[in-house]
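Worked Example 4.2. Consider the chain below.
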Amino acid sequence: MPIVAALTDQTQLAARVAQRLNLPLALCPPVVFSDGEVHVALEDPFCFRGQTVIVVQSTCAPVNETTLLVPFLVHELKNAGAARVIGVIPYMGYSRQELSKATGKSGHAWVIAQMLERAGLDEIFILELHEPAFKDFFSIPVHDILLRDYIAQHIRNTISDQSLCIVAPDDGAESMATEIAKPLGVSTMVFQKERYASDKTRVIGHSGVSDGKVAIIVDDIIDTGGTAINVCDVLKREGFEKVFGYFVHPVLSGNACEKIQKSGFDTVFVSNSIPVRHTKNIDIFDVSEVIAHHVSAVL
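Applying the procedure from the previous section yields the following structure tokens:
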């Protein structure tokens, strides 16, 4: 029988995936030595022999540690005789670093891909991969699970107002916004931004016009929250009565949660791909059903 494994399960995502697949869950918490080195050991290595193991673990903060721990776990599973290891990495850290500053060369994301594959992954699922070109760094099958239909349905079930407009906070989110807006039959707006520091942006304009009263900003990642909040402010100034956000991966670095709480957002919806605390205007949607559906097709 296949087994679901995880290092930790702060969001209960691994447990929910296991439950939906009707499979057992094995937690393999790492040990940290006094010098800071980490070690992953399997409590019962023999139970993995000859089995298919689905590792469900995002490589999120502390990103350097978890990015190292996931291949350690995969390697140990292969050492224990696992016949096949499928990686479910809902949020793939370093996927935004696909390019090197040396023109035409691959970036740090290539190193991460090589590390995961050499550790023994046979197949991998990623949720809303930030840069599709990241898949080219692997020679194993890579499945990019898109949530556009799921988010559209969640909007339909959660936000009853029909006077909607789906908003892309930058050009990179335009296709996502369009694919969410289409089944809802609503208009879209696309904002343009410029970056004036490594983690700071300003809005410089937008295309698309809407006579709607409710705006929904969508993107795959919300990190510092700066771009989303800037766009929210513009939308409020332009007359939108309510502004919501739908972001798959809540990186929410630094004081992003506090900034969102003080912003003009009515509610920001994020998935449980990354652990995040529930606050008064940050709500969490569960993606275990979508993941289980896709993984079941390869078991």
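The mean pLDDT is 92. The chain is about 30% helix and 25% strand. Compare this with Example 4.1 before moving on.
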